[in-house]
Design a protein that fits this description.
binds zinc ion; two-stranded antiparallel sheet; Dna Ligase, domain 1; alpha+beta; single chain; three-stranded mixed β-sheet
């Protein structure tokens, strides 16, 4: 293997293993900070690129959060998220009940991924 390809593979393994230990839906910046602790020579652009390649190959999903940076998620099966308005943490949630019905357009809901907003347990106890 060429030197460059080898280095690439090693960096990707490191980013993957750091990311896999973060169960808190990290942003790319949060992953960068953890990767820097393990190997300060890996730059931000590389971490961003490697995270996106994990998404492309189906090892991670990107969770868009409208008021902040996208989150990366190791759980790839479709699921809903809830974001705490106070501390910004993003949690996996499952919702009970039937699928919602769309009222104003002709559209049959078969599934989806939703981002809910609210307060996490710690934050609602502190208010
Ligand atoms: Zn919170
Ligand atoms: Zn998730």
């Amino acid at each position: 293997m060429q030197q460059k390809a080898k280095r690439n593979t090693r960096q990707k393994q490191l980013v993957r293993s750091v990311f896999e230990k973060m169960y808190n839906h990290p942003t790319a910046d949060m992953v960068c900070a953890e990767v820097a602790k393990a190997d300060p020579t890996i730059g931000r652009a590389t971490v961003y690129r490697l995270l996106n390649s994990l998404v492309e190959e189906g090892s991670a999903i990107k969770v868009p959060v409208h008021d902040g940076a996208d989150r990366y998620d190791i759980t790839v099966k479709p699921h809903d998220h809830a974001k705490c308005l106070q501390c910004g943490k993003v949690l996996d949630v499952s919702v009970e009940g039937e699928l919602p019905r769309v009222k104003d357009v002709d559209f049959t809901v078969q599934g989806g991924a939703v981002l809910y907003y609210g307060l996490c347990r710690e934050c609602s106890q502190n208010t």
